Amino acid sequence: MYMRNSSSVAGTEGNLTMSVWETMQLCLEAILANRLRSALTMLGIIFGVGAVIGAVSLTAGAKAATLARFEAMGTNSLRIMPGQGRGPIGGGMGSAQTLTLSDAEAIGKECPDVTAVAPEVSTHAQVEAGSSNTNTTITGTSENDTDVAKLTLAEGRFFSADDVKRRRKVAVLGSTC
Fold first, then answer.
1. CA–CA gap between residue 6 and residue 23 (Å, rounded)
2. pTM tops 0.70
3. What is the DSSP string of 8-32?
């Protein structure tokens, strides 16, 4: 620790005030006298500030991604899934086939505030095309799914009500197929 004679500070005997210049000199002397300690302290401060900036950025990114997912679902969207199957081994939520196509049609007809209904059934399967194959989710839905799920197609068209009515063999492939 460096001590200065109080008589040399500010030119008066007993006065303990220092000028800005003298303070800077004292700080520089202390830093140069303890170079390793000073370097480690600066390194700790740099890493600490960097960690805080990284944590804040990561949290902001996660928040933005979560908000984007909720906005994609829509603020006026409701998903209804069947309950869990009964029996000695539960199949989990959505495993009981208690909802039917007529239930979805009834919701669309009898609920005046409902603008679109898109019934959906899905399964996982191994699919093949040429020499390629992959395990994917296959979803059966209606022509309203683009409105309900806020889907946009990269190219082509989504199937129409006429395609559904005539039971045409049409498919919309996702980006992973």
1. 13
2. no
3. TSTTSTT-----HHHHHHHHHHHHH
**Contact present, 93 and 113 (Cβ < 8 Å):** no
- Mind listing the pLDDT tens digit for each residue in 8-48? 545 555 556 788 899 999 989 999 999 999 999 999 999 99
47: amino acid identity, one letter: F
Residue ranges in the chain whose pLDDT is less than 50: 6, 9
First to last CA, the chain: 70
Contacts of 41 (CB under 8 A, 6+ apart): none
Residue range of the domain that includes 57: 20-72
Are both 119 and 169 inside the same structural domain?
yes
Q: Phi and psi of 90, rounded to 5°? A: -75, 140
